[in-house]
């Protein structure tokens, strides 16, 4: 099939590359010409394991065709995905990229006199956005030519984007009519026997995406609230408490006497909170949507409130250990919001750095992404950039781990002693091996006392 993709960020480009690898002809367009130029040169404009190799193949085979003109994309295709950003502005969803791209695509549809062109919204949009914002534009502009509209949310996780796209657990198709549903089903035909295809209306599809993100955010804040309680009870270890919870047979099932640990385990580990381009903004957008529609969302508000304290919890603990942070040398290990991505959007480490800068701390930062893709990560002013673990630890008073990169697993008391003034580390992700640290060297938030 000949399909367009508008927006070549994490979602658009992953969608484009993967569909092109499934033998569709994909025309991809972005306002950002620099990004398009990179893609043409077979270079991924962001970091995502495994994706650049496939990009190389699909550009060489001309299955993925970057376009500088939207008119050409529309002319060549029967429908397109809209994958532009939906960030937060003044605590509400900012739909300007959606509205601009819909306006631009309708103009191209009219220029090309395309009949029944299908528009598939892949971006995350709040309930009723398609009905109240997108449909009126399409009705007004394309009433005579006819059109199709679907909301087909993307569920990929950065760091796992390729596998998530190629092995989906579900494909949700919210659609205006059966013709558009069939069109979308045809695009995803490759997956129809391996995952659930959920057909629904536009509004449900919009809310399904928010429900997904709100649920996993809620688990993280739940575990952090339990950590807040534990913190006040000397000797209580919230990580063990969560381990016990996860072993409950309603969560961990047993097959042939083997425990099947569910994927949600990683959302039930207390730590420095969630970040990224989805959870914080999507929960906020849902709360704001509910608020504007007189719907109470106390649970979702609490999810955000609890999360907003987490980066500061790391700082408070460091402050309590050192007495003051003024002029102390602080090593930040991990600046991306999660491992295996270069994405810094709403990263807890950035919040912590802001607080540390205010406290006049002397900050050094190391993230494995600096070695993997040094050109695209922008570090806050006032921080020293280091390119390996040893460098960032050198002469440091305390090390704070914000991201669960595999490389940090090598950390232990010996390494800390070798480079730091005194071996002290705070594990903000609860993943370092306790056995590797002498008593009094490794701290975790939520624990009254250390290892
Ligand atoms: P992104 O910011 O990385 O990419 C958006 C791209 O759209 C940018 O390259 C931008 O230049 C381009 N763009 C903006 N306006 C345009 C226009 N009018 N015409 C053409 N291009 C335009 O965003 P992203 O992370 O890919 O997210 C896109 C959407 O998908 C958002 O709604 C997001 O919430 C959702 N989503 C993101 C993820 C994720 O992990 N990043 C996962 C699932 C869903």
Explain briefly what this protein structure is.
With 451 residues, this protein is an alpha/beta fold.
Structure description:
By secondary structure, this protein is an alpha/beta fold. It folds into two domains: 2-200, 3-Layer(aba) Sandwich (Rossmann fold), CATH 3.40.50.720; 217-444, Rossmann fold (3-Layer(aba) Sandwich). Helix content is 41%, strand content 16%. It is built from 17 helices and 18 strands. It has helices at 10-21, 33-40, 51-60, 70-76, 96-111, 129-142, 161-166, 178-187, 202-231, 238-246, 279-292, 298-308, 310-322, 348-358, 369-372, 389-393, 413-419; strands spanning 2-6, 25-29, 64-67, 79-82, 88-89, 92-93, 117-121, 147-151, 170-175, 196-200, 253-255, 258-260, 329-333, 362-366, 383-385, 398-401, 425-427, 442-444. It has an eight-stranded mixed sheet, sandwiched between helices. Strands 15-14-13-16-17-18 form a six-stranded parallel sheet. Strand 1 (2-6), helix 1 (10-21) and strand 2 form a beta-alpha-beta unit. Helix 5 (96-111) runs parallel beside helix 6 (129-142) and helix 13 (310-322) crosses helix 14 (348-358). The longest helix is centred in the middle third of the chain and has 30 residues, at 202-231. The chain is globular. The termini are far apart. The protein binds nicotinamide-adenine-dinucleotide. Nicotinamide-adenine-dinucleotide binds next to helix 1 and helix 5.
